Amino acid sequence: MIVKKGLIYLLYFVIFIFSLVIFIPKINIYYYFENQLTKYEVILSNENIKEQLTTLNIGNIEVYFKNSKVALINKIEFNYDILSPLNIEINIVIENEIVNGKIDLLSKRIIFENMIQADKLGTILSHLNFSYKNGVYLYEY
Amino acid sequence: MNININHYLKLICPVLTAIFFAYFVSTLLLFVLPKRGIDYIDNNSIEQGKINQSSKNKSASALMKNKLLLKAIYKKHNDKSWIVVDNTKTGKTIFLKEGDTIDEATLYKVNVNSAVFTTNEDKFTLKLDVNKKNIQTIIKNGDN
């Protein structure tokens, strides 16, 4: 009986999380992060933002650092999977290279794996105080 | 039948509550989070914009200056002075006192032989249209 009640409450919680993912203003959250990046003198400009049910696609992002254009990111995709509710996937396409990362909501970390330190995205991440170790860029917030 | 409806309502109500609560939280977030993103604007384009605006104002002033002809000034010490201008485009004569506006230009100040107008961000001066006949010609031929 207790297990059944527990399962029902878990179901309600999952429904709440799923509804939250659908209703949450994803574009405004992106604007918030964009505002936060200005503290590091990084500006993301002229991007095309497309909001879908559980994903946020941002295309053609011009990245400016200290008033000079440093990169053009073709696409960033934030993807939330209900099966791994504590992670938000990030897929970045920069100059035809695909970089995969994730935001770990539980340990409050942003992780990019299989990275080369000297490439363009690596340079930007270094400016954003990401630490680099064994091909992994890590930021704890 | 009635028992069945109650049973389903008991199941559905918490689900609806969860959905509405999620919607409520999202709405609150919408109020708190920024509504606009940030775009990079080059300093040069801002300067260019200022130059364009300035030249636009200047051209407006130049147009007004060409259109109006200052015919007379009535300057008083204790009262607002006033002027008579001819609109060369329409052929109309207009009386203006300090502070009056004609088209986009406001009469800002009246001097002894000139009047200063202001537009949005620019100034222009109209000088009195004096009779430019040579004094020698007047002596020789009279005032006519």
Helix and strand pattern of chain B: HHEEEEEEEH
Major β-sheet of chain B, in short? 4 strands, antiparallel
Most residues in contact, chain pair and counts: A-B, 28 and 21 residues
> How many discrete structural domains of chain A?
1
Beta-strand proportion of chain B: 25-35%
Please identify the structural class of chain B as seen in this structure: alpha+beta
Tell me the Rg of chain B in angstroms: 34 Å
Q: Helix content range of the residues of chain A, please?
A: 25-40%
Strand content bin of chain A: 35-45%
Order of helices and strands of chain A: HHEEEEEEEHEE
- Could you say which overall geometry of chain B the principal axes of the C-alpha atoms support? elongated
Can you describe this structure?
The complex is a heterodimer of chains A (141) and B (144). Chain A is α+β, with helices and mostly antiparallel strands. Chain A has one domain. Helix content of chain A is 30%, strand content 43%. In chain A, strands 1, 2, 3, 4, 5, 6, 7, 8 and 9 form a 9-stranded antiparallel beta sheet that branches. In chain A, a hairpin with a 2-residue loop joins strand 5 (87-94) and strand 6 (97-104). Chain A is elongated, with a radius of gyration of 17 Å. Chain B starts with a helix and ends with a helix. Chain B has 2 domains: 1-36; 43-127, no CATH class. With 144 residues, chain B is α+β, with helices and mostly antiparallel strands. Chain B has helices at residues 2-32, 43-67, 135-141; strands spanning 68-74, 82-87, 92-97, 101-102, 105-110, 114-118, 123-127. The interface between A and B is medium-sized, with 28 and 21 residues.
What brief labels describe this structure?
heterodimer; A: 141 residues; 9 strands; elongated; B: 144 residues; alpha+beta; 2 domains; four-stranded antiparallel beta sheet; three-stranded antiparallel beta sheet; 26% strand
Topology:
The complex is a heterodimer of chains A (141) and B (144).
Chain A: H1 2-23, H2 26-37, E1 42-45, E2 48-51, E3 55-65, E4 68-80, E5 87-94, E6 97-104, E7 109-112, H3 120-127, E8 131-133, E9 136-140
Antiparallel strand pairs in A: 1-3, 2-3, 3-4, 4-5, 5-6, 6-7, 7-9, 8-9
Chain B: H1 2-32, H2 43-67, E1 68-74, E2 82-87, E3 92-97, E4 101-102, E5 105-110, E6 114-118, E7 123-127, H3 135-141
Antiparallel strand pairs in B: 1-2, 2-3, 4-5, 5-6, 6-7
